[in-house]
Structure prediction request, 328 residues.
Amino acid sequence: MIILGIESSCDETAAAICKNGNILSSIVSSQQIHKDFGGVVPEVASREHERLLNYSVEKALDEAEIALSDLDGVGVTQGPGLAGALITGVCFAKGLSQSLNIPILGINHLEAHIYANFLTDPTLVYPLVCLLVSGGHTQLWLVKEMADYELLGESRDDAAGEAFDKGGRILGLDYPGGPAIEKMAHNGDCKAIDFPRAFYKDESLEFSFSGLKTSLLYFMEKKDKSVVLADVAASYQKAILDVLVYKLATAVKRKNVRTCVIAGGVAANNELRNMVKKTIGDEISVLYPEPALCTDNAAMVAYLSQLYMEKGFTSPIDFDVFPNLKVV
Ligand code: KG4
Ligand code: ZN
Prediction:
């Protein structure tokens, strides 16, 4: 089975080809234009998708050496995400589906992030706990089997990625803030500043990051000249990661699973990857996708589409986009 995957939920225009579970090509065009605005501008994102979709799909087909007529189906992100951005990808996919007379399937972006781990290791065994950390979501999932998920906890306000992005803006760094803070933190002392850690070391599996961001803002307003920015970045990053790793470890223990995975853009963070391995990895098998499969991409969409299409799932041609789509 050869599937084309399309992803356009935010500011990455992506297309990928999956053949029998293997990714033959994965094209991600990151929209640089948003850097000028310090964050994603929804209408600009839609216009950029419109401009980049054809190119991305053609390049994915070219690199995979696959003709349009070889495709058995097309999978496309249906939500969650920016409404206009989702619509551009879904319309494009519907046009292909109709003109090629092949089935189409709407895919949940968050579920696709989780399944980037199965793409990395198809022998992963259920049940497992997944920490899903992206720009819009911070969630802990018990993945019992395919399409059987239990939400164990999530953020009450900002997502971890949002905390990185807003923190980056406060520190005067480029968007997205996550990779920029990680880079800056590299030579910093993470114990230099004691930023607040909401719900840390308590029993709940909830998160909250909006207070942390405010605390950084006040700190930067009041700081004196002796403060080293690398120390601020390292301390801020550590405050986010400590909570993520503690809650993930708690969820793993509570659900008594033998495997845990991380997913979403923040899972590309090396410090997080190391901390998870160090804290949980002795007794539990820990897995994370390569960084390019953590941040938004269409390989995860093509792969999950294939898993569902093999089971006979398809969407009606008039299916809608859902900006607030949930996993369950
Ligand atoms: O999954 P993703 O690409 O898009 C969404 O579905 O939201 O995640 C994007 C988020 C952004 O907030 C970005 O700052 C964060 O992932 N991110 C990182 C790193 N790379 C991306 N956060 C921390 N460290 C990184 N290396
Ligand atoms: Zn994402």
Residues 15 and 298 are 5 Å apart (CA to CA). The radius of gyration is 20 Å.
